[in-house]
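Milestone 3.1: sequence recovery, worked example.
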């Protein structure tokens, strides 16, 4: 299994703390940047990595920025 990098752990932790654990409670990248206190570009790249790794789900929105939530394995 691939090792999770520190920045990935920080972004996952921020999503957890924000309560973004289901599709009805998504958070924007701005929310995640504020909570993690990390640069926008770094958080953006990390979210894309987590989406591709199926750890985070991206939900496009018609009237605003996309939302993200954590996919927890049961």
């Amino acid at each position: 299994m691939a090792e999770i990098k520190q920045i990935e752990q920080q972004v996952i932790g921020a999503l957890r703390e924000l309560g973004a654990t289901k599709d009805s409670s998504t958070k924007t990248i701005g929310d995640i940047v504020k909570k993690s206190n990390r640069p926008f570009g770094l958080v953006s790249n990390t979210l894309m990595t987590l989406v591709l790794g199926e750890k985070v789900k991206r939900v496009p929105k018609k009237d605003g920025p996309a939302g993200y939530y954590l996919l927890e394995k049961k």
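The mean pLDDT is 92. The longest helix spans residues 6-18.
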